[in-house]
Amino acid sequence: MTVPQSPVSQHASPSRSPLYVASTPLDQTTGRPIIQRILIANRGEIAVRIIQTCRKVNISTVAVYVTEDASSRHVREADTAICLGSLSRTTDKSPAQEGNDTRNPFLNIPLLIRTALSTQSHAIHPGYGYLSENASFATAVRAAGLIFLGPSTAALTSLGDKRAAKTYLRRNAPSIGFPVILKASAGGGGKGMRIVREPSQLEAELERAQSEAERAFGQRDCILEKYIAAAKHVEIQIVGDEHGAVVAFGERDCSVQRRHQKVVEETPCAFLTADMRREMCDTAVRIGQLIKYAGAGTVEFVVDVQTRRFYFLEVNARLQVEHPITEEVMGWDLVALQVYVAAGGQLKDLPALEGGQWRTPAQGHAIECRLCAEDPKNNFYPEHGKVQLWRPADGVLGPGRDVRYETAIQTGAEVSIYFDSMIAKIVVWAPTRALAIEKMSRVLAQTACVGVKTNQLFLQRCLLSPEFRKPTYTTAFISSNLEQLLQFPEVPLQEYLPLIPSLIIRSLAQRGNTRARPFQHIRRQFRNQHCDPVNIHCDVVTTITGPEAGTSSMCVWDPPTAGQSPSLKHARLMPVPVEKEPGAATASYNIMSNTLRRAATKAVTPSAIHVDSLRPAENSLDSPTPSSTFTMEVSVDGRRIVAHVAVPSPGTATGMVDRSQRIYCHFPSLGTYMEFQRDSLLSFAEGRRRYATAEEAGKRTVTAPMPCKILSIEKKNGDSVKAGQVVMVIESMKMELSIAVAVEGTFQTEWRKGDAVEEGRILCLVV
């Protein structure tokens, strides 16, 4: 059965019914639900998503977590949360060591089953990734008397027949024809995926694919496919029950990918004709029926845009990351359907099924964007650290019926190296594709995820690209348009943005001055030389991120005039003059102070700045320190700037003006956050000296960007290396990363293959 498409509504914001939530089947003997408590053998946003549906159907939830993930929302929102130990290599006797060899509790089958039984759970939901497609896990769950919220063991095993050994790959790759693609058979998300363009690369790439697959999913098996460059990745959502019925819930276009991992998905696929859609859905249903598929799954296809022919790829026997967009256009809660069919429910008994067709057809258009902690400008290198501020869009663009935020992060949460880089999914619905694109770009721009580099701006550039508007865009969309997608946008008032960090620190210092202090009526930075022109308020603001990264500006504040409103200030911006002796603190300070003494700032027209509002935000995590997140609305020469601000470790407000301070500002008009450093003249000059010394040493030193494991060392001590040459391969955040040197010289390292390296430690030297 397939779900029909409905006529497009012309209403830009029509009211919609909530998702249809199938109730849990009852036990005929006791009259109680067959499933009353579910253990979620997963983490993060998918665990939160499952918890939300379980609440709707009155099912209790058990979350499992590791110590490195204790701040995740799924831990707090579940009815019960159980710590399974640590992922740290230094922990030798954590519960994760019991029962098998793995150090990852999410891959430890005996431990997960014991935890489910000890919490009197009736079922286990595997989420996606980890053990979600592991036939041994499904078998063990059912052998323990529990319900596995996934397909039958027989279906998982039959799908496992596609797995091939190394010998088979070597023998068959030439017959398929290069290029080919290697993929981890037990999961997705781009893990364990490699394109092999010639036979000589096959063995090395297979080893890396297997290594990455084993760490992510606990299995080394890989599959081999023909790689089609100019193709669309289109998948069909299916749901089957244990009585042989299989239903197709339409398609998803997942062609916007980087590193073979999806980043933007949409439904319906604008490229498909009605006949193609019907044929692909019918094919997916036949495949599901053939393997007696029960549960939610996805049948994946490659569509050749030249010939309009489609080719079967594989069946993903689990819930997909992108399932929310199908829910939004089809109106069904797919997690509830998973629970329904796992408890023995029949699809034909659902009231929405009538005469072999769904009563409610597909409506509108939905888009999902995966917000990832990564640096697009650095080959999408994963990032980690503390989320200084998490603030969803508000108003009509905020969370609601047509805008979904699926995430486990919050203000103060840590993005860990131990997990996937995806930290949130943002989903929007609109009546048409054009409206959905515009809505998503605005929602992204107004979402503040501050403190960790993300692909937020990159996603907006993808959506607004003219090439994305064309239904024929392919999986080569990002690689073909990368230069344009990485450009930083130009926005009005951008040249005034350095004023904001300076204004923030001074506003906080002024607000923090509530207690009496000696000479409290004397302004800060006062010098007992009132005739000296340098005796004025001046900050130095350095832009850390963005196109102007590394540039510093002097922000000079005019003294208030008689009767001037406290909210009105006047300031002048000018570049920091370049000293003749770079790195000399005294020279740097003197050239700035002499610039002020010569009254050079008088040649700069001052900007009138009015603080319209300054509203503190509530931290999402309990913290012993006062709130350092807030929203500031400012008018600069009559033009409005909004900034969502985080000031880490603000300390005492009275000392802010006199020391160096990092400030993060998310500007909705820009669509991302910028990082600044605000200094006094003296602290800036001192910092310049330290920076000059470290810069030269940094060229010949490669440090670990995050805690990692060394997978291979490509050079021996004493070998000659050239600038840009890869010398190491490390693993972190479930990804393999290549390490290159910046200068030419002789290679040296103290590490060996398999060593664990802490963040900031020196990986290698070039001497």
From TrEMBL:
The keyword Transcription does not apply. SMART domains: Biotin_carb_C. Pfam families: Biotin_carb_C, Biotin_carb_N, Biotin_lipoyl, CPSase_L_D2. Transmembrane segments: none annotated. Keywords: ATP-binding, Biotin, Ligase, Nucleotide-binding. Residues 1-24 are annotated as: Disordered. Residues 1-16 have a biased composition (Polar residues). Signal peptide: none annotated. Residues 143-343 form the ATP-grasp domain. GO terms for molecular function: ATP binding; ligase activity; metal ion binding. Its cofactor is biotin. It comes from the Eukaryota. Residues 34-483 form the Biotin carboxylation domain. PROSITE patterns: ATP_GRASP, BC, CPSASE_1, CPSASE_2. This is Uncharacterized protein. PANTHER family: CARBOXYLASE:PYRUVATE/ACETYL-COA/PROPIONYL-COA CARBOXYLASE, PTHR18866:SF127.
